[in-house]
């Protein structure tokens, strides 16, 4: 068995938190299985927290403090660790960028908007202006910077394999200016072709299909079980229960079958981009 790779506690607050958790667990002579027993969480989840890869939820922090007799230390510090990772994202989203960076594959379904990893800055700002118009400008700036930082993964040689699916209405029905949408769609084409990724479009002629009611991001990893991320206007959650993840995976595969083939999808996006560009030129 290869030697265990210890977490670098100096790398981040989350890594420091995880290293402290491992130190106290091992000092108590407990295995991961023994520490997690009696909680509602799994061994792999606890292991990811120790490696600084997942956020400690309050219920597990209370359980850990009780078992390790750490006088509320982990419950007091779990919110601090989460805030340190926030970096311009809503608190409920803080784990997702790190998970995206660690993933071997990313597969996401965008039924209502273009996924964040594919967005241009003008699209991001426009989306926030229409969807959350009362957001302070400073918060908008922070979230735009955070979303742009997420997209840096496209520049990595070891980037995740990406497969996206969009609803056709996402690219056709928008209040944003034609020039913004033309640039946005051309950006998508550039990213998908440069990264040799796959993107499909569910046509408007398919009004009923799997996963109609919300976005889904399926993430697989080389050293951990797959996860699903789902999100609403006010919240989001990571799904790690194997049976539920499997069902999301099955429905995502069925959605692929409803969508246009990849090349036809890119041709459609190219056609719509040309239309937006023509409209923008006529408006000048």
From TrEMBL:
SUPFAM superfamilies (alphabetical): lambda repressor-like DNA-binding domains
Pfam families on file: DUF5753 (PF19054), HTH_31 (PF13560)
Family annotation (InterPro entries): Cro/C1-type_HTH (IPR001387), DUF5753 (IPR043917), Lambda_DNA-bd_dom_sf (IPR010982)
Location of the DUF5753 domain: 96-271
Xref: Gene3D superfamilies: lambda repressor-like DNA-binding domains
Name of protein: Helix-turn-helix transcriptional regulator
